[in-house]
Fold this sequence. Notes:
Helix content: 10-25%
Radius of gyration: 16 Å
Strand order of the largest sheet: 4-6-7-8-5
Largest sheet: 5 strands, antiparallel
Strand content: 35-45%
Distance between the termini: 14 Å
CATH class: Alpha Beta
Shape: elongated
CATH superfamily: Hotdog Thioesterase
Number of domains: 1
Order of helices and strands: EEEEHHEEEEH
Amino acid sequence: MHQKVLKSDFFMDIATFDGNPVLMNHSCNVHRLSTRRYVSAGGVVYYANYLKFMERARSEWLRASGFEQDALRDEAGVVFVVRRVEIDYLSPARFNDRLEVSVGLRETGRASLGVRQELMRGSTCLARAEVKLACVDAVHFKPVKMPATILQTLRPTT
Length: 158
């Protein structure tokens, strides 16, 4: 299935992952690494920047799904925070690489989302991460039940 939605510079596809439908980003155009701020003097991307690229892709994924983070905070009183990240660095990104980041919903809980992300250069996977997001109260930062509209929109239908 190839149903594309354009939001900003972010393309979404409905795809399958482990046999279940998930929302995947196939062309985030996250970065053409043409500035030196992301790379070392040797031209290799600093490892912490991979997390920044993945954060941007998750934000764009939520936006493309219809959820602006500032509106979630102001209207629903919730924000998503990273609770846990497990990342494998497989190969270095380099200066002037064009990178894409995928976001795939793996699981939903009452107050959490689990996503899998991959940072790609063409067909080469440079990093793979499992990210657990917690839905928290925007004032007290305590876990709260996710608004039903978010779960209904993001949860894969089988």
